[in-house]
Amino acid sequence: MEWIFKRPEALTDNFTHYCPGCTHGIAHRLVAEVLDELDLRENVVGIAPVGCSVLAYNYFNCDFQEAAHGRAPAFATGIKRVRPDLTVFTYQGDGDLASIGGNEILHAANRGEKFTVIFINNAIYGMTGGQMAPTTMPNQVTSTSPMGRDVESTGYPMRVSELLSSLKTPAYIARQSLHSPHNVVKAKEAIRKAFTYQKSGTCFSLVELLSTCPTNWGKTPKESLDWLEQNMIPYYPLGEFKTPEED
What we know:
The chain is of the alpha/beta class. Helices cover 36% and strands 16% of the residues.
């Protein structure tokens, strides 16, 4: 019998700790498939931060490091500079990357560090209790904004991809979504491009993935997919924001 669909070699055979309906599992698989297809698995180092993906090292079948909250880009910078022959990627949530790690990612991108960032944007702090994040939508209810996010006092959600794409330094910056099969295919295309640019030593790369958090959103998995499409995509448009060819 010919296998036409199987577990990527870059994923371990472990059950994950993610909640039902969480799209972290989809993102993990896409990254793993790309690592296999580009023949990178034996030469890759991933970096897990604090957040829902804190245990990512249990699920990827490759070398991994654990970083303090927000500091994954600093870890990646050190590893890539010491071992430029390695493929290095960080896997970060929005609370980690856009809040405490905001300066880390901004300056890593501005320096043009040649590693890859997989940025999971689910508009909330997932692991620590569903608090408001820099990416939380206007009027969105969270554990720390029970009346909804008030943009008059907290500002508007941060568009990380647009912010980084404004830098002069060459980079590949894209945003895709994980809420439908069609969008999952496009997300994989962006991830493949990001790792390909790193493989060729071209530039820094970041792929932002719009994701769901049914538990902290207080919705079913299906309701979460619909909410993402109806509320997040209009504010966080999908596509490529910066490519090195344009710089």
